[in-house]
Recover the amino acids of this structure.
């Protein structure tokens, strides 16, 4: 049981490194930027940051998972780390060199020919973050989840600090004390660029704090080992790239396929706002993924590894079912997370929640091709999902608008889940408790349907009945899993605290 307690504890700690940055970004930086920038200035920030997902996937080319895989199976994890870091350093410097060499052409292609400095700044930020990915992966592999979380939060706090300096302190000094010598550090002409400068400084300071983890001995570099790692990791690049299509393509298609610019933007706004509610599920999945991936690889040689993976899937889905029910049953309150003018799109929230749950299952199932060295199948599955995303949006958006994007997202992850499950049974069979999971799914479906019958009730009684539904689910979990209050108390108060444990 200690291994599951450790996994749960790390999921919570990794969550701090995932949730807090997102929370600070949405709650602090987004309203701050929209207040100080014109629409055109904020458009520059939004557009350049939209490239981050694709560039990070390309510049890390699956090496994070490759590190977990080979650090566990090779005799010397230091050699694996040194080999990967050497490769990543080479490709990152090559990327920066190419950007520098062709900066005018790239800036013109992106329609920033008058502001190439923006492109260069952003390229450096992405490079620093890409290079930091492997030291962060090392922290995860070594079970240093607290340090991982603290550094992620530190990065955001430093970013906020420099934003405050550049956009509040310096403008105040320029106005109140125009002769202050400190203003030599400030140039009003770089007003928008200070967004990227703040990010660059945050990434640089974070990398400096990661230096103790980057104990590289380049004499340990092994070109043959690198070829094996790349053979394993490159298909994961395709997985990641296809995954970004599934993540962001819907917004792009909405703008292109809905007639009338204003109407298109309105639908994107409604879709995006309600998608944020569904992302509560995504945040949990991201928390879990950071903790689970090194956990899975650490158990791969255990005699009962497959039983462990099956149990983790069960516990994972129980939490997903709980999140799904909690959001649906209390949607009358949670909906005020977004403004009332977006509430007409609340009907897509269950679709997005279900889609994100299936994505979480896909991430869990992906362990079969990562452990059996068949990552090419992961690439194939992701490409199929990307194809469904593209075709589904093209076919459904003209008829259903943003609801078509929601259904396409669900269809994409449903197909990926089914394909991954059946291929997994063939190449790396794991005894998932399908009957038990079917019981849970049936109960959740029944509660979901029953809550429709109380929609017309007074809000107080509706929430009271919905709370009863949720209580029934929790009691079912306790009975079915044979969990006692004593077990729960031991889990909460006696959780292992050995941070350096490798599970």
């Amino acid at each position: 049981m200690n291994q599951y307690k450790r996994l749960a504890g790390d999921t919570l700690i990794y969550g701090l490194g995932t949730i807090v940055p997102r929370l600070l970004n949405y709650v602090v930086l987004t309203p701050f930027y929209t207040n100080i920038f014109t629409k055109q200035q904020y458009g520059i920030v939004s557009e350049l940051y939209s490239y981050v997902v694709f560039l990070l996937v390309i510049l890390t080319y699956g090496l994070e998972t490759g590190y977990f895989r080979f650090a566990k199976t090779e005799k010397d994890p230091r050699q694996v780390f040194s080999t990967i870091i050497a490769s990543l350093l080479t490709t990152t410097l090559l990327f920066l060199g190419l950007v520098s060499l062709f900066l005018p052409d790239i800036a013109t292609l992106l329609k920033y020919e008058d502001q190439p400095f923006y492109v260069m700044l952003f390229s450096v930020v992405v490079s620093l973050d890409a290079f930091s990915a492997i030291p962060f992966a090392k922290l995860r592999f070594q079970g240093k989840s607290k340090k991982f979380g603290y550094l992620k939060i530190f990065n955001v706090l430093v970013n906020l600090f420099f934003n405050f300096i550049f956009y509040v302190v310096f403008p105040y000094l320029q106005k109140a004390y125009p002769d202050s010598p400190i203003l030599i550090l400030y140039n009003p002409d770089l007003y928008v660029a200070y967004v990227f400068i703040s990010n660059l400084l945050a990434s640089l300071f974070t990398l400096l704090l990661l230096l103790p983890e980057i104990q590289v001995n380049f004499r340990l570099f092994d070109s043959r080992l690198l070829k094996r790692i790349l053979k394993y990791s490159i298909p994961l690049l395709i997985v990641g790239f296809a995954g970004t299509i599934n993540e962001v393509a819907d917004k792009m298609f909405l703008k292109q396929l809905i007639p009338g610019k204003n109407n298109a933007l309105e639908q994107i706004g409604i879709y995006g706002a309600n998608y944020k509610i569904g992302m509560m599920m995504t945040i949990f999945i991201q928390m879990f993924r950071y903790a689970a991936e090194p956990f899975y690889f650490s158990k791969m040689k255990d005699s009962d590894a497959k039983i462990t993976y099956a149990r983790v899937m069960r516990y994972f889905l129980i939490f997903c079912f709980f999140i799904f029910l909690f959001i649906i049953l209390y949607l009358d309150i949670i909906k005020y997370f977004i403004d009332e003018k977006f509430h007409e799109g609340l009907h897509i929230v269950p679709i997005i929640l279900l889609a994100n749950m299936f994505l979480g299952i896909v991430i869990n199932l992906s362990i079969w091709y990562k452990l059996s060295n068949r990552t090419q199948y992961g690439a194939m599955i992701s490409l199929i999902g990307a194809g469904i995303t593209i075709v589904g949006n093209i076919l459904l958006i003209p008829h259903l608008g943003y609801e078509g994007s929601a259904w396409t997202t669900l269809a994409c992850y449903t197909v990926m889940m089914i394909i991954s499950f059946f291929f997994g049974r063939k190449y790396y069979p794991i005894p998932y408790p399908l009957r038990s999971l079917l019981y849970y799914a049936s109960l959740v479906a029944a509660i979901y349907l029953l809550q429709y019958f109380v929609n017309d009730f007074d809000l107080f009684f509706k929430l009271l009945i919905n709370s009863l539904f949720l209580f029934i689910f929790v009691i079912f979990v306790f009975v079915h899993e044979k969990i006692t209050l004593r077990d729960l108390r031991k889990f909460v108060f006696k959780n292992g605290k050995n941070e350096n444990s490798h599970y």
Summary: The longest helix spans residues 261-298. Residues 451 and 466 are 7 Å apart (CA to CA).
